[in-house]
Amino acid sequence: MRKPHFGFILLLFLVLFPNMTFAEKASTSDQPKAKTNQPKEWVKIDDGLYQFNFTMDTNNLTEADKSDRFFKELSQFKIDNSDERVIGFQTKVSEDPSHSIIGFTVATEKKEVNKAFITAIVTAIATGLIGLLTLWYNLKNNKKNLFVNTITAERVKWMGELREHVSEFLTLVTYHSEKNKSTDPKDKSEYIDNVLRLGTKIKLHLNYLDRKDQKIIRIVDEFTNDIRRIFEKASLKNSLTEQEYVDKLLEPKQDEISEKLKQEYKKQSKKKKRLLTSKEAEQINNYVTKEFEAVVLDESYHENQSLLNRMNNNPQKLLSLTQAYLKDEWNRVKEEAESGNISKK
Q1: What is the tens place of the pLDDT at every residue in 146-168?
Q2: Which residues cross the membrane (predicted)?
Q3: Model's pTM, two decimal places?
Q4: Cβ pair 90, 11 in contact under 8 A
Q5: What does pLDDT average to over the chain?
Q6: Are 188 and 231 in contact (CB under 8 A)?
Q7: Of 60, 76, 276, 326, which sits 20 to 30 A from 246 (CA to CA)?
Q8: In angstroms, how far is CA 201 from the centroid of its own chain?
Q9: Of 278, 342, 314, 285, which Cα lies nearest the Cα of 145?
Q10: What is the pLDDT of residues 100-115, one digit of tens each?
């Protein structure tokens, strides 16, 4: 008789003390008798009950070799059936006197789902999603707030610049009469350039399509045009004698004067029923010229009065329009900053 191996002793121990659950399942199942060389190693007998058969010639194998072979196959079995847990196994021995091992019967049970583990995973995923959504919302909200704050800051800066430009412009145009008295042409030229420069800055800070902006732009244009006209007239008058100045005013009316002279020549010739003498023609010429001189001087006077009236009234108009405009803009900026909605104006 062969000397028993330690593995064989272990197998005998397992035979003598089988698992209770396995014994219960094995007793309630009709187990077909397996032969030594099954064509398939693993055969499912019932739910949770499998039979392992040696498909190779085991005559030359010791009991220990068979056990080693079984444990190797059992490891692969556990991998292939990962949803089941082995709860016990029992050897199958031959009916001959040798009682050699011809196979194994293995009992398994379904692995219970770890609800706590799944709950933890679901909770972690949900927490992660909530965290991501919160992060996304905060980033979006912060981006919007940053945009609103940037626009608001730029508009406040723009309002401050507009206020400064208008203030400087009003200060400059208020002293036009003093600058007009200057005898230095360069000083006058620099003054007009400053007026035009500030007027342009104000208009560039406004929206030419908006009605409120258009009112301010119109006043600024009147200022620049009127100051330029006042300085041009003063410069012209100072550079000429009184008669030369009047003759300069008459130049645009030469066509009207010529037409008037023709009418008077014709009228007097018809009245006298003869051609006019040179003296009579000269008298008519002097008369018509004096008449037009009075007209152009009167027009010049009224133009000067209109210029002066606008120069006196427009500063207050511009100031009032700008104050109302800046107040409306400030209210709009506050409302947009509070609501977070930036208008497209």
Answers
A1: 767 778 888 889 999 999 999 99
A2: 116-137
A3: 0.55
A4: no
A5: 83
A6: yes
A7: 276
A8: 28
A9: 342
A10: 888 888 989 887 766 7
